Amino acid sequence: MQDHSVDSATDTLHRRDAGPSAKLVQAGFGRTGSTLKTISRRSFAGAAVLALAWALFADVAASAAEITVVTSGAFTAAYLELAPTWEHATHNKLVTEMGPSMGATHNAIPVRLERGEAIDVVIMAGPALDDLIRRRMVREGSRVDLVRSSIGMAVRAGAPRPDISSLDALKRTLLAAKSIAYSDSASGVYLATELFPKLGIADQIKGKARKIEADPVGGVVARGDAEIGFQQISELRPVKGIDIVGELPPGAQRVTVFAAGIPATSKDPKTAKEFIRWLASPAAWVTIKKSGLEPIRAE
């Protein structure tokens, strides 16, 4: 006698173990050759899309430029925030270096250009840039004014804040200070050669006033190596461990224009010009103001 229950169970087990191939047959995909052709066409189409995407990426990478920028301290905070935005928008790359607008240190912008460094953009104090243009180290007609910068005074965080609200108050503060620090760039040159003599105290503070080379003045004050320090406001703001007392008062203040230019050693003046134009555009103004500088608006 035939056991139909066993046959039924066996048939069920076979169907369970049939696997994907059987399911494909049941679904109408039993013709293997046709299936392979379909898969091949799809694979080829996918490979073609990937190849096109790679070609487009390679084309962008090949056309992307790389320029070297050297900026002085006053513009550094704004620059470091702006640079990634420009790189992302243009796919170009910025190689960034720092250096003061003047002085004889190894990284000073004039010293770099004197030894023939290949630099595409310099951002520095306007008067120092003009000197480099006269010396044909920066291309004539390439100067673009970017910002105005004011000098400020700082003390160590938590220390008493001396009065510098007037010329007389500033003079008393300088005479009373145990130690004074100022930069080796635009603001420091002005203080040492013009302001201190103007106040009639150059000789009196000579022994306690120190020019700081290749180091932020704010850092010197934060370490306690100087009781008070002077530098561009935008250079003092990023330094931790100090309190900014304020800007120099009227009659003592020197507002410096910082500008960009294209050195004679530039290997890509076209991209350099585009970058400078963008730095001077309204797109950069909010970031510039946040850093303590005043953007120069084109007339």
Rounded to an integer in angstroms, the radius of gyration calculated over CA atoms is 33 Å
Oligomer category: single chain
Structural class: alpha/beta
Anisotropy-based shape: globular
Residue ranges: pLDDT <50 for 5 or more in a row? 1-39, 44-62
Element string (H = helix, E = strand) = HHHEHEHEHEEHEHHEHEHEEHHE
Spatial order of strands in the largest sheet = 2-1-3-10-4-11
Largest sheet: 6 strands, mixed
Question: What's the mean pLDDT score?
Answer: 85
Terminal Cα span: 108 Å
Number of helices: 13
What does this structure look like?
The protein is of the alpha/beta class. 47% of the residues lie in helices and 19% in strands. It has helices at 4-16, 19-26, 32-63, 73-90, 109-114, 126-134, 167-176, 186-199, 202-205, 217-222, 233-236, 269-279, 285-290, and strands at residues 66-71, 93-98, 121-125, 144-149, 151-156, 180-183, 209-212, 228-232, 242-247, 256-261, 294-295. Strands 2-1-3-10-4-11 form a 6-stranded mixed sheet. Strand 1 (66-71), helix 4 (73-90) and strand 2 form a beta-alpha-beta unit. Residues 1-39 and 44-62 have low confidence and may be disordered.
